[in-house]
Specification:
The structure is a single chain. The protein is an alpha+beta fold. The chain has 3 domains: 49 residues, no CATH class; 56 residues, no CATH class; 232 residues, no CATH class. The strands form 4 sheets. Strands 7-9-10-12-11 form a 5-stranded antiparallel β-sheet. Strands 3-4-5 form a 3-stranded antiparallel β-sheet, with no helix packed on it. A hairpin with a 3-residue loop joins strand 11 and strand 12. The chain is globular.
């Protein structure tokens, strides 16, 4: 970040570091780190500097991309809007303008997903901060988007997931905290490894088709994700017919009633990864009527905790008892999605 170019949070409260204009109107002059300038005084106004970066060209039909060298990156930067293919009404500066080419020749597989997909929070905040990690920076912040600790805990909906399993073939069940739910989507990425450890990835323009259904009387504190089966942790993979029959026979030998279960993934979020995991456990315990200890045991032997995004977004997966999912009214959705044998 650039000292003097923001108040408290470079993502939210920008200001010109020279003339001090808050949220300055800007224009683009040339390419590079200082191309975005304040309209009022003409000084570089971006609150960020990219220390190390890349420009990647994508072959959509082949499903891969390759990073280019500095010369090619500069050529792309001069035609940034053409390459970025932004929607006609979008008002933003493509990061391609920076012309970064610090690691040429790196191949990467495309695995597109939406970094933002969710419902509108019950408090007026920037969409980037509708999450338990980024949202924590708004608590008692020194700018107009400041919120209270109570609002942070009650009103956010974790719509900014940056979880790469929120991709085609997944189902996302989200809390509703405003009339009409306010479903929104954005922040499309061409690919991202768990954690988004660089703080950014290959942002792209995308067309997404989302089908929306209403589940009544399901009170959620955070989203539930049903990822594609191949994205589930190994221990959470759904049981298939042959192994389920063998399980029933073994349970009969042991004299126990076999529990029918299904994989579900809860989103946990917080200021840190540990906070996010604990919040995920708490969300499961509250919704399922279980103790935290039982939730942790189930996650340990039938699921996993995976990092969605640093500093504090996780996926907490477990095989959930079907009887509980039936009471919540989501058993049919899960059974159909994972083609379960019962």
């Amino acid at each position: 970040s650039v000292e003097g170019a923001f108040i408290g949070d470079p993502y939210v409260a920008k200001k010109c570091p020279v003339c001090k204009e808050p949220w300055p109107e800007f224009e683009v002059k040339g390419i590079g780190q200082e191309a975005i300038v304040c309209k009022k005084c003409g000084s570089p106004a971006s609150p960020f500097r990219m220390v190390h970066g890349y420009t990647m060209l994508l072959n959509h039909s082949k499903g891969f991309g390759v990073t280019v060298d500095a010369d090619k990156a500069a050529q792309v930067a001069k035609k940034a809007w053409e390459y970025a293919q932004l929607p006609s009404k979008s008002r933003q500066v493509p990061v391609l303008v920076l012309g970064k080419g610090d690691m040429p020749g790196v191949p990467a597989r495309m695995r597109p997903f939406l970094g933002q997909l969710g419902s509108t929070p019950a408090v007026d905040i920037p969409d980037s901060h509708n999450a338990g990690d980024f949202g924590y920076f708004l608590v008692n912040a020194p700018h107009p988007y400041s919120i209270t600790k109570e609002q942070y805990e009650r009103d956010l909906t974790d719509g900014h997931l940056d979880i790469d399993s929120a991709r085609p073939g997944s189902i996302l069940i989200v809390p509703v905290k405003v009339d009409g739910a306010g479903i929104y989507a954005g922040d499309a990425h061409a690919m991202q490894g768990d954690g988004e450890v660089a703080g950014h990835t290959t942002d792209v323009a995308a067309e997404a088709v989302v089908q929306v259904e209403v589940i009544k009387k399901l009170a959620l504190d955070g989203p539930i994700l049903l990822p594609p089966e191949e994205d589930l942790p190994p221990l959470a993979k759904p049981w298939r017919k042959e192994e389920w029959e063998e399980l029933k026979n073994y349970a009969k030998e042991l004299g126990v009633q076999l529990e029918e279960s299904a994989p579900v993934q809860f989103i946990g979020s917080g200021p840190t990864i540990n906070d996010a995991a604990e919040r995920g456990f708490a969300r499961i315990a509250k919704l399922f009527g279980m103790s935290i200890e039982e939730v942790k045991n189930r996650v340990t032997i039938t699921g996993a905790v995976e990092i969605g995004r640093l500093p504090g977004m996780v996926q907490v997966t477990l095989q959930a008892p079907l009887t509980i999912l039936e009471k919540l009214g989501i058993a049919d959705i899960v059974i159909k999605h994972y083609r379960l044998p019962y």
